[in-house]
Amino acid sequence: MNISKEQFNLWKHDPVSKVFLAFLKDKREFLITRVSEMWVDGAEVPPAIRGQVIELGEIASLEFEAIEAFYKPEEEDVAEPQGSVG
């Protein structure tokens, strides 16, 4: 991973990023409201919407540490010496 926590935080607080993250949260709330309305009306709710709601929430609240943790095992695997018997 080639960014620092400081760079990530600068991106997260950039005006364009703030609008994008607000959009993700608003889109998630819209889907929750719409699905609730569909359910009350007796309509079948597409199962994929649940996944969308979950993913939008996770992306909107993503922290640097989650990205770092995701990439860390891969970087550690590359750093291990090859051919060592231990």
**Number of distinct helices:** 4
State the order of secondary-structure elements, H for helix, E for strand: HHHH
Beginning-to-end CA distance, first to last residue: 28 Å
Indicate the percent of residues in helices: over 70%
Rg (C-alpha, Å): 19 Å
Count the strands? 0
Major sheet: size, sense and barrel closure? Answer: none
Number of domains: 1
Report on this structure.
The chain has 86 residues and is mainly alpha-helical. It has one domain. Helix content is 73%, strand content 0%. It is built from 4 helices and no strands. 1% of the residues are buried.
Task: Give a short summary of the structure.
The chain has 86 residues and is mainly alpha-helical. The protein has helices at residues 5-12, 15-40, 48-60, 64-79.
Q: Can you give keywords for this protein?
A:
86 residues, mainly alpha, 4 helices
Describe the SSE topology.
Blueprint lengths: L4 H8 L2 H26 L7 H13 L3 H16 L7
Helix pairs in contact: 2-3
